[in-house]
Amino acid sequence: MYLPLELFVGLRYTRARRRNGFISLISFISILCIILGVMTLIIVLSVMNGFEKEVRERILNMIAHITVSNFEGQLTQWPQVIAQVRKNPAVVGAAPYVQAEGMLINRNNVRGAIFRGIDPTQEQAVSKVAEHMTAGKLENLHPGEFGIILGHNLAQTLGVDLGDKVTVVTPSANITPAGVMPRLKRFTVVGIFQVNYYEYDSAVGLINLDDARRVFQLGDNVSGIQVQVQNLLQVNSVTQSLREQLPDYWVRDWSYYHANWFKAVKMEKTMISLLLFLVILVAAINIISTLVMVVTEKRSDIAILRTFGAPTATIMRIFIVQGSIIGIAGTLLGGITGVVIALNIESMYHWVGTHWGFQPIDPSVYLIPDLPSDLHWDQVIYICTASLITSIVATILPALRASRTQPADALRYE
Q1: Is residue 299 part of a domain?
Q2: Model pTM?
Q3: Any domain includes 66
Q4: Last residue of a domain, which of 248, 273, 290?
Q5: What is the pLDDT of residues 156-209, one digit of tens each?
Q6: Are residues 333 and 234 in the same domain?
Q7: Of all residues in the chain, what percent carry a pLDDT higher than 70?
Q8: Are residues 271 and 324 in the same domain?
Q9: Please, which pLDDT band fits residue 72 given cuts at 50, 70 and 90?
């Protein structure tokens, strides 16, 4: 099999020899560094993509895409607002809601909570909480019966189950002959939900819209309107459209409530990518060191090639081929390993949790109990391309040095 001179000599220099075993060791270390850098970048970015995706989906299981409210916190003419919102062709659902904070008490267990008043008949059009009921159902929230549906973790903290009573304490107070007393109301647990998002499972209680308005003294008013759009990718444009359609109201999309979290994730992805790319840069420096030593060792070979008429471009390409082989091998192996691990990391995580008997990820810190992965092929291509370019660029300086070797100087003491 006939190969071009540059490729033939470059491949020959890459293979280990007795007298250049140390150089081959550095080449192996360079390949290993590239493998680790590329593999780690793919895995880490996939896991962070997975966290972002899972958190987004679990947030949207509980809240609508868009909320419409006013700046006073109480929406008075909300039926008219719903009618206007539904005129938008991208809107597929709209429902009123009440949101307030308070405390839940059961015996000696006390926990702060966020109460959301909903209309069970309309809630399924704007959220997916009905699909995540572990006990009871959303339709159990009948007006006037003061039923409550608790998050799974919140119910465990309070030590309650279906049919148990809990006391709701509101921030407002009643003035009585005995003095100022907090407003208390007994509720019956009629359901438990679990969306696997710690912030909601541990702090949210759902009650009927009419009961919420009575307990929190809102009269006929509500806190706002929940809006569901046809396509999540259209949220920004629909939000802007509703702002123009309802200039006197406060229109926010779902990301507003968790903007800091998503900004932090974006910044972490950027910084981690830069830090891990330093591993690839270390490998590139090793490639430079390897080729510099090879050029020093092969000066006589280079001089002989120049004497036989090999142009400087050919000499350069020989060493570019040698360095590129290191980059291609490391990038290919690192990319394949990273993709395989990224696609199977969830099952690997569950295997570790099952066989070692502990949960590495605390949901109270990381919001979700799993280790999700979402592999983006465009990121894989970007990482591999950057690794290849870095490896090839690292070969240019040693290749230039090799091409400038003078045959007379190199062969003088041979």
Answers
A1: yes
A2: 0.70
A3: no
A4: 248
A5: 999 999 999 999 998 876 665 655 567 889 999 999 999 888 888 999 999 999
A6: no
A7: 82
A8: yes
A9: confident
Tens of pLDDT, residues 77-126? 888 999 999 888 888 889 999 999 999 999 889 999 999 999 998 888 88
Under a CB-based contact definition with an 8 Å cutoff, are residues 196 and 57 in contact?
Answer: no
CB-count exposure of residue 156 (10 Å: 0-12, 13-18, 19+) = middle
Residues 280 and 243 occupy one common structural domain? no
Number of domains, the chain? 2
The predicted-structure confidence for 379-392, as pLDDT tens digits, reads as follows: 899 999 988 888 88
Interatomic CA distance for residues 151 and 196, integer angstroms: 10
Domain boundary among 192, 227, 248: 248
Token pair of 102 as six digits: 């308070």
How far, in Å, CA of 239 to CA of 247, rounded?
Answer: 12
- Let me know how many helices (H) and strands (E) the chain has, helices first: 14, 10
The DSSP H or E segment spanning 388 is helix 377-403
Residue 196 DSSP symbol? S
Cα dihedral 334, 340, 343, 345, rounded to 10, equals -90
Residue type (1 letter), 320:
I
Indicate whether 65 belongs to any domain.
no
Burial 256-269 (b: 16+ CB within 10 A, else e): eebeeeeeebeeeb
Residue closest to 154 by CA, chosen among 187, 181, 128, 126 = 187
Same domain, yes or no: 289 and 318? yes
User: How far apart are the C-alpha atoms of 315 and 306, rounded to whole Å?
Assistant: 8
Segments forming the whole domain that contains residue 332: 5-58+261-411
